[in-house]
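Structure ticket #2291
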Amino acid sequence: MELSCRFAEQTSIHDRCIETDMGWKIILGRGLDIFQNYEMNNAFSFANKLQQFRACKPFGVTYHRKSE
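Resolution: structure written out below.
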């Protein structure tokens, strides 16, 4: 898989999405801010080291087929 990304200018809309070269647009409802706060300074917390133990905030993902 090859990934390339670009950042829009600051004056553009505040939105996050992934557009594939296969014609799909994937809209991330919260962007990448999906995790609830966790104790980052606790050396004994599993959530501190392992992402699968972090609680998530509710979010949505929309898949949209772009017209040709």
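Closing remark: The chain has a mean pLDDT of 78.
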